[in-house]
Amino acid sequence: MRGARAEHSYLSQYEELRRRNPWRPALTQAQIDEVKPVTHPVVRVHPETGRRALFVSEHFTTRIVGLPEDESRAVLDELFAHSVRPEHLYVHRWQPHDLVFWDNRSLMHLATGCPPNQRRKLYRTTIEGDAPY
Questions:
Q1: Which of 27, 29, 55, 89 has the fewest CB atoms lying closer than 10 Å?
Q2: Residue 75 belongs to what H/E stretch?
Q3: Residue closest to 43 by CA, chosen among 1, 89, 104
């Protein structure tokens, strides 16, 4: 798998996520047209530390480029299961006024735990980085 690349699509599960979250807006056709699938390495190297990290997501990664669909799905399912093993998880217990930073180049994240009748409020800042390699 060294050097393997995966396709990522923002739209692959967007409607399913929207179905589960009434706050997620419908996308216009113009927005949909802007979001093309991209490929990234399955394992990326952090440019500062040299550490390797999985660069796949259950919500966005659709296939391993160059593998037949059944093999691609099997590999992705194994990687997804590995990524959520308890020893790899950090669950933040939110307190008022918390501020959390993370480096997308070395971890995956998922928002959870917001009661369905409440809207999550956050301010997101993204620092432009380098292309994964």
A1: 29
A2: helix 69-83
A3: 1
Secondary structure element (H or E) that encloses residue 32, with its range: helix 29-34
Say yes or no to pLDDT of 123 above 70: yes
* Fold annotation for 1-133: Double-stranded beta-helix (3.60.130)
For 52-79, write each residue's pLDDT tens digit: 999 999 989 999 999 999 999 999 999 9
Question: Do the beta carbons of residue 59 and residue 88 sit within 8 Å?
Answer: no
Reading the block at residue 62, the tokens are 């659709």
pTM of the full predicted structure? 0.80
What span, in angstroms and rounded, lies between the C-alpha atoms of 28 and 99? Answer: 32
How far, in Å, CA of 90 to CA of 86, rounded?
A: 8
